């Protein structure tokens, strides 16, 4: 059934999903207010999400199904605001990733585990795209960056569960820090590549682009540190503000969340770019903003967590958890509304071979990273020579679920008109979006099933890990 929408009116013609563009009316019309569309997204989306959680399935897939059904009766105001709604959800992804990273946990071995295996997979996908899909290196790198990032929104809750079951075991804690760090790596790398892939970069020499992006990253990290650190210090001390002996601010957790979210929105706006290419703070010698918006928000969250009190950070994270439910409902329902059934036959022909190449490279990267850490004996690492294969397998299963980053970035090459100087730009843009949706639908489901099934078994096999306290070991055995 094709639903033809115009001016808050809905008509039913015949059955198939709504296309990407607005279409006109025919047949019998009825008023369709935006409130009904939102009620469906929030209520039905949340109920289906809850059913999937109870069934041990990824909630994002349930919400995608709700969005797919919504494509048959999409409300016109929501349709026109679909890109903006996804961008706001993407902002929440960035802020969440930043808040989950603790500077005290960022040891050298953690960067190796978060960056090296992801880079292996990214390069494998890019090579596959260049050799077999005839894409340029820039197109392949953008494709790999979007597909490679771990689904931290799926993995972190599961690691919390494993951490409760196996108290004191280092592997869940490793993945708990690894997940947001890798997500931040992918988001920041995507922002850098956007400077080369966006149409505004045409006509600029490569050396100038590289220098400009290096400067942009340095300035962004510094500005994010100042914004986030100042916010953390001030927000933690807001209760001391008084007038005539009366406390001005309540000190409630939602108050701190509203403050840091507003500051993060300012950080994002400093690097944002309008549809006409206009920016708030431009660079002088290359196009684009002085600040990289994704990295700016992440750094703001990271340094807020570093400067605020631990109790304050946990309170903000709890509020963020509630708000992120709305973000999930919007983000994944919008993805589902852009999905059609004809994308799935493409999976076996093009996406599955690319996925297999990427995952083989990912496992090799994890195995080599762990062995390299052991050889160099980097301080603080939890690995042992006798358990390299088991540790590698657990880490590999933990990075299989994919959802959040793919959902946030998959549409960006289309909306940003990436690769416009290349002859097959629209084909590459559409394939990236298609691959991102297929990764979400397959990797989130298969990845979570494998992690739920084999994760506890692999942890149990490493209960006798050296360097792990006997008391914690006995607790984990009794809990299991």
From TrEMBL:
Classification via InterPro entries: CPA1_transporter (IPR051843)
Its taxonomic path starts at: Eukaryota, Sar, Alveolata, Dinophyceae, Suessiales
Q: What is this protein called?
A: Cation/H+ exchanger domain-containing protein
Q: Where is the signal peptide?
A: none
Give a yes or no for keyword Aminoacyl-tRNA synthetase in this entry.
Answer: no
| Entry's transmembrane regions | 23-43, 50-73, 85-103, 110-129, 135-155, 176-197, 217-236, 248-270, 290-307, 319-339, 351-376, 388-409, 429-451
Q: Which UniProt keywords apply?
A: Membrane, Transmembrane, Transmembrane helix
Asked if the Swiss-Prot or TrEMBL record annotates the protein with the keyword DNA damage, the reply is no
User: What is the species listed in this Swiss-Prot or TrEMBL entry?
Assistant: Durusdinium trenchii
């Amino acid at each position: 059934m094709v639903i033809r929408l115009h001016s808050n009116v809905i008509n039913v013609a015949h059955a198939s999903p709504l296309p990407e563009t607005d279409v006109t009316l025919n047949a019998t019309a009825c008023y369709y207010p935006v409130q009904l569309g939102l009620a469906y997204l929030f209520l039905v989306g949340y109920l289906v999400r809850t059913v999937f959680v109870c069934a041990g399935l990824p909630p994002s897939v349930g919400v995608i199904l709700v969005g797919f059904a919504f494509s048959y009766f999409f409300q016109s105001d929501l349709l026109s605001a679909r890109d903006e709604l996804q961008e706001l959800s993407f902002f929440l992804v960035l802020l969440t990733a930043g808040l989950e990273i603790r500077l005290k946990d960022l040891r050298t071995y953690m960067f190796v585990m978060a960056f090296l295996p992801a880079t292996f997979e990214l390069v494998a996908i890019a090579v596959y795209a260049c050799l077999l899909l005839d894409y340029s290196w820039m197109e392949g790198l953008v494709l790999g960056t979007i597909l490679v990032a771990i689904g931290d929104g799926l993995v972190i809750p599961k690691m919390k569960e494993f951490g409760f079951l196996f108290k004191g075991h280092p592997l869940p804690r490793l993945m708990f820090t690894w997940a947001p760090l890798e997500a931040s790596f992918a988001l920041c790398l995507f922002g850098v590549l956007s400077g080369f892939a966006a149409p505004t970069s045409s006509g600029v020499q490569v050396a100038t682009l590289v220098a400009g992006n290096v400067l942009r990253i340095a300035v962004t990290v510094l500005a994010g540190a100042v914004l986030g650190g100042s916010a953390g210090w001030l927000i933690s001390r807001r209760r001391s503000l008084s007038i005539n002996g009366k406390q001005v601010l309540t000190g409630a957790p939602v108050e701190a969340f509203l403050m840091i979210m507003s500051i993060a929105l300012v950080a994002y706006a400093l690097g944002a770019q309008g549809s006409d290419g206009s920016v708030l703070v431009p660079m002088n010698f290359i196009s684009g903003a002085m600040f990289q918006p994704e990295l700016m928000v992440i750094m703001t969250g990271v340094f807020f967590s570093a400067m605020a009190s631990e109790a304050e950070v946990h309170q903000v994270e709890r509020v963020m958890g509630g708000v992120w439910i709305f973000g999930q409902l919007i983000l994944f329902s919008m993805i589902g509304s852009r999905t059609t059934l004809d994308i799935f036959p493409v999976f076996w022909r093009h996406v599955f071979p690319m996925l297999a190449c990427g995952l083989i490279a990912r496992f090799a990267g994890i195995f080599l990273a762990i062995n390299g850490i052991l050889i160099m004996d980097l301080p603080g690492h939890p690995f042992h020579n006798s358990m390299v294969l088991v540790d590698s397998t657990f880490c590999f299963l933990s990075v299989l679920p994919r959802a959040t980053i793919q959902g946030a970035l998959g549409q960006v090459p289309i909306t940003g008109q990436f690769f416009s100087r290349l002859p097959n730009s629209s084909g590459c843009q559409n394939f990236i979006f298609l691959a991102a949706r297929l990764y979400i639908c397959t990797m989130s489901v298969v990845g979570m099933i494998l992690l739920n099934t084999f994760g506890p078994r692999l942890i149990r096999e490493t209960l006798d890990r050296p360097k792990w306290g006997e008391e914690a070991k006995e607790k984990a055995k009794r809990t299991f």
